[in-house]
Amino acid sequence: MTRLTVLGSCGAWPEPGRACTGFLLSHNGFNFVIDLGYGTASRLLTHTAARDVDAVVITHEHPDHMADLSALGRAWHYTVQAPPTPTDPGEGARHGQTASRPLLLPLFCTTGTLRRLEATEPHPHPTTIFDVRDLSSGPQLHPAQEDSATQGPSTAPERSTAPEHGATREPGAAQGLSAARQRGAALELGATPEHGAAQGLGSGWDVGPFQLTAVLLPHHVPNHGVRLSAPGLSVVYSGDCGPSRLLVELARGADLLICEATLQGEPPADEPRQLMTAAEAGRAAAEAKVGTLLLTHFWPGTDRAVSVAEARAEFPGDVLAADEGLTLAL
Ligand SMILES: [Zn+2]
């Protein structure tokens, strides 16, 4: 059984009664969390306990995509990692945890995300809660490929030069304190991103039943669009980005494209572009020939029906608007 649950659909800040960006992709019992912006942690925990989260990917370091990662980390630390006692072996002990080897939650993110997480709460340090994998250590197209592939104005975001906190840029290497989480044989987390290729974009990581491919897309900070593939299933999420040919290639033939549609109407004239209009999202979906387009990251106050109409004018397939609690069977 496969389903995608929308945890939050707002960009920037959450509207009353809503939350910022977040999704839960559940496939054959594996729960993959995709972004955790403002207000999403409570919604996530209404759908699944922290101990049943199997992996997390954060596309970029902006708080509307990662602020509630700290909340999930706390839930993980104080429930799953709670020290076992003689009278209560605890969740961790039931999964083989020992005092010297706590269970870590696999987390794919940028070094910038890790820095913000550490700034929020340095103790316990996030690398003692999460098994951190640097998204930028995965396959990346050469800048020349980006340039030649990009249609329309676009630019590669600046790379962060601030110190890293353990997350290595060596391909696929896990953070130093990490150990592959052990949950029976259910989780197989590949140590190196070498298995298979997604749409000619290079190799990815094996994460449970999924192959994860990440591609750098144009935004104010390093943002990785992600593709999660399993036999008979492919879900692509843009994160936040301006129009990019790489997004089209990442999404090529996907069953579902979750695409940011922050803007409406005519695209802004300012360059470089860091966000997309709903029409541009529709155009990307059409070029990639995806099955369904799910618009998200709406600017607060946006009339979402207008966004859907603008995307439908460009894309003949199904177009939906993300909505808190919406669940799609895939
Ligand atoms: Zn955002």
From TrEMBL:
Entry superkingdom: Bacteria
Biased composition (Polar residues): 147-158
Coiled coil: none
Ranges for domain Metallo-beta-lactamase: 19-280
Ranges for region Disordered: 82-101, 118-182
Pfam families: Lactamase_B, Lactamase_B_2
InterPro entries: Metallo-B-lactamas (IPR001279), RibonucZ/Hydroxyglut_hydro (IPR036866)
SUPFAM superfamilies in the cross-refs: Metallo-hydrolase/oxidoreductase
Gene Ontology molecular functions: 3'-tRNA processing endoribonuclease activity
Name recorded for this polypeptide: Ribonuclease BN, tRNA processing enzyme
Source organism per UniProt: Amycolatopsis saalfeldensis
